[in-house]
Amino acid sequence: MTTTTENAIKVETVVVELDEPIVRGNTKITEITLRRPRSGALRGASLMALAQMDVAALQLVLPRISEPTLTPHEVGGMDPADLTKCGLEVSLFLTPKADRVLVSQSK
């Protein structure tokens, strides 16, 4: 999915449906929208670690690119299957466009 902001910058986003909702107060978060990170959102994280879906790297980056914004603690408490789904989407964001097209065609 691609959305356009007011400045006509294309922002790629993907919605991840959670198997186990994240509970925040009285609210249950059942889905997370992830946007393709820009370089600033990746500061302090190794691209290789993100491509390998390293938990510590995902805990650093997911709060910066998620809507609603998750806390590092919430990311740390995610169901492993949900963290894997988010990690897969983050690693796909890091691949060249031509390769992403091939992956999306195979789904």
Describe this structure in a few short sentences:
With 107 residues, this protein is of the alpha+beta class.
Helix content: 40-55%
**Helix-strand makeup class:** alpha+beta
> What would the average pLDDT be, to the nearest integer?
88
Spell out the helices and strands N to C. Answer: EEEHHEHHH
Q: Enumerate the spans where pLDDT stays under 50 for 5 or more consecutive residues.
A: none
Number of helices: 5
Could you give the order of strands across the largest sheet?
Answer: 1-2-3-4
Question: What does the overall shape look like?
Answer: globular
Radius of gyration (CA) equals 14 Å
**Total number of beta strands:** 4
User: How far apart lie the N and C ends?
Assistant: 14 Å
User: Which percent range describes the beta-strand content?
Assistant: 25-35%
What is the makeup of the main sheet? Answer: 4 strands, antiparallel
